[in-house]
Amino acid sequence: MNEIERFRRREGLAVVVSGPSGVGKDTLLDRFLADFAGVTRLITCTTRPKRETETDGIDYFFVTQKEFDRMRESQMLLESAEVYGYSYGSPKQYVDERRSEGLDVILKLDVQGGLSVKRALPEAVMVFVAPPSLEELERRLRKRRTESDDSLARRLGNARAELDLISRYDYLIIHHSPEQASAELGAIITAERVRVINGG
Predict the structure, then answer these.
(1) What predicted TM-score, i.e. pTM, was given to this entire model?
(2) Backbone φ/ψ region at 102: left (φ over 0), alpha (ψ -120 to 50), beta
(3) Structural domains of the chain, with CATH
(4) 34-47 b/e (C-beta count within 10 Å ≥ 16 → b)
């Protein structure tokens, strides 16, 4: 390493991407990861039942509650949270290993989990993805056809509370389209990659 390179980041970033349910985080990240090199996506552990469109080991690691409790007690999770009655957690070893290889790791988390990671990793880059409006969020949730009326009302109520926490994040992406949102996320990560590290 020369005298100039010592001012550049040597390990990968931990990038937390949060936002209300239904805002389009998966669509955004699918587009982004197809176009942007040097980034990997964390696979979260969950006790939530697998949906028909999901694959174990790709979308999530689907585990039993007993397995999840063992991982949490063994401090194998960077964060864990209860969301809609199910447990979610981020495997710490996966994040540490990828970052040490120089890869940036995107952690797609609900707001509760994202703020937990910020406490554990103060250097994490915090990105909030918001809908253009709550009306648009409701439209997107209804389009999925996976929610009952009660579930929809609960998710919209949670979204209002989550939007109040935007100020706890470093960056805000208002998700109008996957193309626009992906470009903005790429700009954020590029800027963070070339940030000067004080003290070298």
Answers:
(1) 0.83
(2) left
(3) 5-193 (3.40.50.300)
(4) eebeebbbbbbbbb
